[in-house]
């Protein structure tokens, strides 16, 4: 998810670079900027990617993933999204 810290970090970076107007940036460039480890906090996954790979990414170094369909942003998933999804499937596992 894009949060206030990401936006604030982006604004500060643009100010430091001498930009007078904020450029129109891709979502994945701004997401995670507020994190001390921004380069590791976001990954991209394809809509048809194996769920295990997605869960491995989210439960590892990445806090969130930008879901792409044919290279275009479709959705965002986070740790919380994965946990809620897994929790909703508990009855199927028992």
Task: Give a quick set of tags describing it.
single chain, 94 residues, alpha+beta, CBS-domain, 6 helices, 3 strands, CBS_dom_sf, Prkag1 protein
Structure report:
- By secondary structure, the chain is an alpha+beta fold.
- The protein has helices at 4-16, 27-30, 38-41, 51-59, 79-88, 90-93, and strands at 42-46, 64-69, 72-78.
- It has one domain: CBS-domain (Roll), CATH 3.10.580.
- The relative contact order is 0.14.
- It comes from Symbiodinium necroappetens.
- This is Prkag1 protein.
- InterPro entries: CBS_dom_sf (IPR046342).
Could you tell me how far the N terminus lies from the C terminus, measured between alpha carbons in angstroms?
32 Å
The unreliable regions are none
Order of helices and strands: HHHEHEEHH
Instruction: Summarize the amount of helix as a percent range.
Output: 40-55%
CATH architecture grouping: Roll
Which secondary-structure class do the elements indicate?
alpha+beta
Number of domains: 1
Radius of gyration based on Cα positions = 16 Å
The beta-strand count equals: 3
């Amino acid at each position: 998810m894009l949060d206030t810290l990401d936006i604030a970090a982006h604004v500060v970076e643009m100010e430091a670079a001498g930009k007078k107007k904020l450029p129109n940036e891709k979502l994945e460039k701004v997401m995670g900027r507020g994190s001390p480890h921004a380069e590791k906090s976001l990954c991209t996954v394809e809509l048809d990617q194996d769920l295990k790979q997605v869960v491995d990414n989210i439960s590892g170094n990445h806090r969130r993933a930008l879901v792409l369909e044919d290279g275009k942003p479709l959705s965002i998933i986070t740790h919380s999204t994965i946990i809620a999804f897994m929790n909703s499937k508990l009855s199927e596992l028992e």
